[in-house]
Amino acid sequence: IDDIELDVTLELGRAELTIAELLQLREGSVVPLNRMAGDPIDILANGRLVARGEVIVVDGKFGVRICEVVSPR
Fold this sequence. Notes:
The chain is mainly beta. 7% of the residues lie in helices and 40% in strands. A hairpin with a 2-residue loop joins strand 3 (48-58) and strand 4 (61-69).
């Protein structure tokens, strides 16, 4: 069971756009998200929330520090 692969997603936030707004996106466009800077990000495994964390930098690369493990329902 330890060898089963999961699709892990780190979600910074979400945005709703119309098709027209999506088609207008260009390099340099900014899409505002529904979260504030510094808010914890969601960590999902196969689409299910499993933890929350904070974005950090480790040796010049992004990383995530786990702040809360979410109990399964």
